[in-house]
Structure formats: C-alpha cells, structure tokens
Amino acid sequence: MTAYDNQNIFAKILRGEIPSFKVYEDDETLCFMDIMPRTDGHCLVIPKTPCRNVLDASDAQLAAVMATVRRVANAAKTAFAADGITLQQFNETAGGQEVFHLHFHIHPRHEGVAMRAPGTMGDMDAIKGHAEAISKAL
C-alpha cells in the first residue's frame, strides 16, 4: 500500500493552509463543502487523522467518519428538502479516487434530478449558503 501523503489537499484543509466552507467539526472528523459540487449541498466528510481510504482505515476512523456522515446526511436531507441522499466513496486510482485521504461525498438528491457532471467549479457564494443551510439543520 502506498504511504499517506500529508501534502494532499484535504490534509492542507485540515491544517488551515487552504480555506474551506466548514459544515461540521468534532474531535475526530471534519465536514466541508465540495467546491466542484455535483448537487446543491454536496459536501465531504473526512477523518482528522491520516488515512488514504477505506482499505487502510482503522475501525475507529471508520466509526467516527460514518457517525458524522449519518448526522450530516440527515441534516442535508432536511436543509434541501431532498427526497434522498447519495453517498459516494472511492478507493485507489482504479476505483476512481482522486484525493488520497479517506472521504465520503454526501449528495442531497431530488427525484428525477440528475447529478451534474464532475469537474466544474461552483459558485462560492452559493456554496457558502449551502454550508450555512446544512449547519443550521444540524
């Protein structure tokens, strides 16, 4: 298994070297908005400790992250009056992973509305408002 790279973008967000729109934070996890959102309310949950993905995560890291995923997913569903939630999680390059720090994507979903294509920068004012809406629902 490849070693954890502490210069990945999520490690830099954790250290405050790169700004983010924080939604939720506790001692073990951080949730922040994706700046290339595929849905309104698209956010990410990560552990605060080094971990490339599910394949090398400890049971404690997974438990902490999943508790936050559940909590934030429920708040996002409420905040966006969503019909459901899509969770995404990718492992290694062949599995679609691009940032090598364990993370779960939370997407509020509405019946009949497709996710947007990946890779398009979002409107920062809208993203900030989405973060505030989810935080308020927490």
Short account of what is shown:
The chain is 30% helix and 18% strand. It is α+β, with helices and mostly antiparallel strands and 138 residues long. The chain has a 5-stranded antiparallel sheet with strand order 1-2-3-5-4.
| Lateral arrangement of strands in the main beta sheet | 1-2-3-5-4
Using the alpha-carbon principal axes, give the shape: globular
User: SSE string, helix = H, strand = E?
Assistant: HEEEHEEH
The share of residues in extended strands comes to 15-25%
User: At CATH's second level, what is the architecture?
Assistant: 2-Layer Sandwich
Describe the model.
This protein has 138 residues and is α+β, with helices and mostly antiparallel strands. It has a single domain (9-137), classed as HIT family, subunit A. It contains three helices and five strands. The protein has helices spanning 9-14, 59-79, 124-137, and strands at residues 22-25, 29-33, 43-47, 84-88, 104-109. It has a five-stranded antiparallel β-sheet. Strand 1 (22-25) and strand 2 form a beta hairpin. Helix 2 crosses helix 3. The longest helix is centred in the middle third of the chain and has 21 residues, at 59-79. It is globular. It starts with 8 loop residues before the first helix and ends with a helix. The model has no long low-confidence stretch (mean pLDDT 97).
